[in-house]
Sequence to fold (552 residues):
Amino acid sequence: MPATIMPMTKYIFVTGGVVSSVGKGITVASIGTLLKSRGLTVSVQKLDPYLNVDPGTMSPYQHGEVFVTRDGAETDLDLGNYERFIDIELTADSAITSGQIYSTVIAKERRGDFMGGTIQVIPHVTTEIKERLRILAQKSQAEVILVEVGGTVGDIEGQPFLEAIRQMRNDVGRDNVLYIHVTLLPYIGSTKELKTKPTQHSVNELRRMGIQPDVIVCRADYPISDGIRDKLSQFCDVERKAVIPLTTVDSIYQVPLVLEEEGIGNLLVERLGLQSAPPDLKDWQRMVACPIDYHQPVKVAVVGKYVELEDAYYSVRESLCHAGLAHGRSVEISWVQSEDLEKNGDIETLLRDVQGVVVPGGFGNRGIEGMISAARYARENRIPYFGLCLGMQIQVIEFARFALGSDQPNSTEFNPGTSHPVIDLLPEQRGVADMGGTMRLGNYTCHIQPGTIAALAYGDDACVVVERHRHRFEFNNDYRERLNAAGLVYSGLSPDGRLVEICELKNHPWMLGCQFHPEFGSRPNRPHPLFMGFVGAAKEILREGSQPWLPL
Ligand code: GLN
Fold:
């Protein structure tokens, strides 16, 4: 039975061709920016073909960052770009995987919902996919839903999704559906030319599934000539003005402006028969054109264990960049493998030049002692330090080792038998056996304590904030008094006062850790207050002649 779909909703389906990582997510996010700038309401959905229920259990090396929505869904990092570019907040309804679809279909079969029928990819799996599209359309009431199909056309596991989006054309009417294909034009160095053949093949592959793209967005590292546009228009049967060139730009935040310039905004509005205002991109233009002093970058070390893959810290990198933009400075990140701080012990060489240290989120034992050394270095040398979730726990462990004069303080995540469990499992986590989706996830309220660095960052009157979480361990309250007496201040607490959500160090320019993930809330034109505070403090630090930190 076909799913019932909202009559007024317009759908833009975006597929990828030739190779992955061509910037499909940024293209979708940018199109969202352009539609919203015309006064249209927009929502976005990502369809990921893998069989995991969500990426929460995947290694960051496999998948990059796990982006957490306000309602606590662990999702693909593309959702972060949708939120940042369109300035919306998404929910679990925007992150669909084959794992979710199949588990729902199989659960229905076990319940007997299919009345003895044979369960098949078509129609049962495709109907379930379309049901997820309907749910988002209904809940968001958006005029336009952008749907990104993960992976590349031709992938076996992506086929049910392509079939579902093909069926949508008939379900909701041809005038309400549009297909965009994002491809790569590879550059051949010896002949100095961009090649269109892989795009032609990938469009053919899409057609084999019954989908004719209406628009092709061509990514390339070199300018795309008129001849190439003509050729693609001819061979892929796409109108000339619907072949949109997108050459590599310095900053991802330029992409909406480039696409607008190429006319994609008007084209989409026209094709879908949308009533809209002229685009208002003034804020965006101002943000992109904001004068940056590139000669004086703020140098920040991000110390983590997945640094070989920058995507693992995607939102952290973007949040630092947003705060840099607002301070008129670029932020130069040096990615420091925390294990290197353990092995050769040459912390001075690796951190000598930086004006700030960030320890981002993470799980498991590897590289922990290196992160603790980085926190010690930041404390002793009075370098701004920003701990994000795990980074706050590291800050507490390091400070407790100093304050208690013992090398024992640790988290029970890393040493279950420690005699000083300064970080311990949240009570509600005891007895949790399933690893998927069971952490303390999503939005929680935090009360900021007046007169603290945190209060200064958030603005004095903003004493209650809501931030996104993803953790199992917490500050152990048995140590609250002792560490406070030695100089640790609890500047953010849960409403009942039980959970330490932010802690900071006295007599230090800026050493703060938060149990939540502020990086998920930062926007290019509205940086997160804590990132603003950290980059602002780092910018002021001159390494020569800095005073060592002194205990109280
Ligand atoms: N591993 C830590 C915990 O579970 C920190 C989690 C994180 O950094 N997201 O509490």
